[in-house]
Design brief:
heterodimer, A: mainly alpha, B: two-stranded antiparallel ribbon, disordered N terminus
Chain lengths: ~160, ~290
């Protein structure tokens, strides 16, 4: 139970052991632990950043969707308006054409009636002439009296 | 019977296997058993470190790495809780103290006479199996820590430490008083201050080493007592009824004391470590003005 050379030797053993264990055991393990801690911290930060980025992206998508929806609505509205315009135009055009057709038909009918009236008048005059010739005999000069008869017939038609 | 068989044995078991360089000078001897065991433990620790280091993985640790990391984490936490500033030396020092002292103390779990008998096979008559029982080891470690404490005291706050050494606890007499008589009294009290402070400082390594040594030495003596009082030394005494009962009692008491002593060994390793950290931390505390 005395202090002797063992004491000196033990100091050397102790100091050597502290040095060697520091380099071989504590150092590597502590470095590994610190590296892992740093990695975990970085990982957590990255995960948090990822969540944030995801939220941001989701918000962006929502905004873009909203914009697209608004655009689509606008397009549909303008298309509907255009369709209504086209429809209106077509109806107007058709109506104009129909009017035109009716007008020309009316004109044609008028002309035809005129023509028919003219030829009827001619025929009636001819018949009247023939009848008068027959009635007052052959002495009556056709050329001389035709004018008179035509006048009578016209008068008769106008009266009719 | 048993008492007679081992009564001379207790003193015999407390002898060191030593080699003397100079018989006239008791200092000039070396305890070969302590040296063998500590160098053995140190070599084992270094081989273990090399093994752990070769199997280090960066990812999730398993097995031995996991265990060592939890030990280091515990030590780092202890140092961090006690230390005002970061000093890279303290945690490895604390780790070495804790593991080394714990391993030395744990050798006490071996049966009391085992090492002695193994050494006997090699023709040795004395062999101490627990190196921390040898006062040289705790004193060597405590003194190393103390020298480190002094080094940091002088390095970090030389003026403050000298002032404490010479003027505490009567610093106010010399520094604050305007009365010349009181000032002279302050100067006269310097030797007293120095004595008080030296006692205070020297008590640190002394208590640190003797606490460990005393606990472990007492533990071993109790083991030897249990063995010498209760265990039979020959077959005849076991065969008798009293001898048989005594064997059972001896085993029960021995196992009980082993468990308790293991706990003490762990506790002493922890106390040695934490006190070293605390002493170093006091040296690192900023000087109060």
């Amino acid at each position: 139970m005395s202090i002797d050379l063992t004491f000196i030797a033990q100091i050397i053993v102790f100091i050597l052991m502290v040095t060697v264990l520091w380099k071989l055991l504590y150092g590597p393990l502590n470095d590994a632990m610190e590296a892992r801690t740093a990695k975990i911290v970085a990982g957590l930060a990255a995960a948090e950043a990822g969540v944030e980025a995801k939220e941001k992206a989701a918000a962006e998508i929502e905004a873009q969707l909203e914009e697209a929806r608004a655009k689509a609505h606008e397009i549909v509205t303008s298309a509907e308006q255009r369709a209504a315009e086209i429809n209106e135009e077509a109806i107007n055009k058709a109506r104009g054409e129909a009017e035109q057709i009716l007008d020309s038909a009316r004109e044609e009918i008028g002309a035809e009636a005129q023509r028919a009236r003219q030829s009827l008048r001619q025929e009636v005059a001819d018949i009247a002439m023939l009848a008068a010739e027959r009635v007052i005999d052959a002495e009556l000069d056709a050329k001389r009296h035709s004018k008179l008869i035509e006048g009578i017939v016209k008068q008769g038609f106008d009266a009719a | 019977m048993a008492e007679q068989g081992h009564s001379g044995g207790i003193a015999e078991h407390l002898q060191y296997w030593s080699y003397s360089f100079d018989d006239s000078n008791p200092f000039m001897q070396i305890h070969l058993d302590t040296m063998l065991l500590t160098v053995g433990i140190a070599t084992g620790l270094i081989l273990f470190s090399l093994y752990v280091r070769s199997r280090l993985v960066a990812g999730a640790p398993t097995g031995i790495q996991n265990f060592m990391e939890s030990v280091i984490d515990f030590i780092n936490q202890t140092v961090k809780d006690n230390f005002p500033v970061h000093n890279p030396l303290v945690a490895p020092l604390a780790m070495t103290i804790f593991i080394f002292v714990l391993l030395c103390n744990s050798l006490d779990i071996l049966p009391a006479y085992l090492m002695h008998h193994v050494a006997g096979m090699f023709g040795l008559h004395t062999f101490r199996q627990v190196p921390t029982n040898d006062l040289n080891l705790p004193v060597a470690m405590a003194l190393s820590v103390f020298i480190l404490v002094l080094y940091y005291e002088f390095k970090l706050k030389p003026g403050h430490f000298l002032k404490e050494l010479l003027l505490q606890p009567f610093a106010a007499l010399l520094l604050d008083s305007k009365n010349p008589v009181v000032k002279i009294l302050g100067v006269i009290l310097i030797p007293l201050n120095l004595t008080l402070k030296l006692v205070e400082e020297l008590a640190k390594p002394l208590s640190l080493s003797f606490r460990l040594f005393g606990n472990m030495f007492a533990g071993e003596v109790i083991f030897l007592l249990i063995a010498s009082l209760l265990l039979a030394s020959n077959l005849e005494s076991i065969m008798s009824v009293g001898g048989f009962v005594s064997q059972l009692a001896g085993l029960a008491v021995g196992v009980g004391w082993s468990l308790f002593h293991m706990f003490i060994g762990l506790l002493q390793a922890f106390i040695f470590m934490i006190l070293s950290v605390v002493y170093l931390s006091i040296a690192h505390q900023p000087a109060e003005h």
